[in-house]
Amino acid sequence: MDLVKMATQLFLNKLGTSAGGLDPDMVSNALSSLLGGGNGDLNLSDLISKVSGSGLGALAQSWLGDGQNDSFSISDVLSVLGESNVAEFSNQIGVPEQETAGALSDMIPELIDQNSSAGGLLESVGGVGGLAGLASSFFK
Length: 140
Fold this sequence. Notes:
73% of the residues lie in helices and 0% in strands. The protein is an all-alpha fold. The radius of gyration is 14 Å and the shape is globular. Residues 122-132 have low confidence and may be disordered. This is YidB family protein.
């Protein structure tokens, strides 16, 4: 399954009953804009860098490992992604911002965790060199 489809499915599952009637393609496009710059894909290495750059490196590291994922609060989501970006995303899909931010706070750690096992994230960050650069961002 491609990353955008996986993220869309996870997000809709996290929204629960609020997802009823939402067009998955519209959600995919909006997620791509929010988490990938709108190029039709998601950029997990950029997302992890944003989380780490916001002083939450240990949080991101918990998602990359195979252990328990630390929780990503709604306030962290708004801080990392930008309140205006989350508000725009919410407007695009027609779901209240608090519900959207809550679903994102549940979805993002799971998405990163599922793609960091067995080398999945290694490929998405550009191999060993990209992972080394990503790891160095945790300690800045």
